[in-house]
Write a structure and sequence with these properties.
MetI-like_sf; single chain; MetI-like fold; transport; flat; 14 helices; 321 residues; 2 domains; mainly alpha
Length: 321
Amino acid sequence: MTFIFIVRRIFSSVASVFMLLTIAFILFRMLPGDPASLMFRDPRLTQDQVVFLREKFGLDKPLWEQYVIYLVNTLRGDLGISFYYRRPVAEVLLERLLNTLLLLVPAVLISIAIGVLTGVVSAWKRGSRLEKALSGTALALYTLPTYWLGGLLVLASINYLHLPVTGMGDYGVGYSSFMDHIKDLLSHMVLPLSTLVLVNYGGFTLLVRASMLDVLAEDYIRTYRAVGFGEGRILFKYGLKNAMLPTLTAISISIATSVSGAVLTETIFAWPGVGRLIYEAVFNRDYPLLQGAFLTVTVSVVLANLLADILYGLIDPRVRA
């Protein structure tokens, strides 16, 4: 049954990816003008390059042939040539993806850790001043606009903290050692990392709190308390395990969307990641790059959903029925 369940989920994910590829193809063709004319707008492209690109990506062929070529090229990892960078889209995305993961994976993990802990404590101390403070803070930060909080941290850094506010490092500065480079990188990560953690952890807190409240009201929790089990054991060994089931999907989606980067955060702090790359692609009308970023983000979300479904099914047998 478990094997059949996993196979079903894999086929469903493959179908979703195929639909996303089709949507991306249609959206790109719905833009003003034909794709080839968009390439002609770049004065840096020579006539020979334009002819080569037309033939390579089948832009001189009927639409159905273009679709087949597009699918084949995408499956081979060939996402086209960036209009702005004049380099393969996959190459540009890979460079920015590493920068994004360097920033956002720690941010997501820290947000999950803080959110789970504060959510459990809020549910345990329901009705107390501590619970109101934790839940109120989480709700306030969750509803804050990212650009507002990021701008506030920039002002605080300029006036008080004196931390770097843009980029991944001080350009043109030589480092005497590898550790100096690491220290400079970490100092540039503080503000964007703090912004992402503060904005994201509130959602995990509220979700875990709601799930824990439902679990703590169950009869088996009362039985454990009547038997004499300690609160810590009840909360983290029995309560949290069941409360985390609805949270798995939210966590997987958060990790997946880290691939897209936080467009606003990366733009505010000039962090050269996928989020800022999306902004640059829109600003420069670099449609192949924008299409490649769209595919990267959506496929990541599908894969994360697949992982969440499999984990959910392994933990909760009812899902496999």
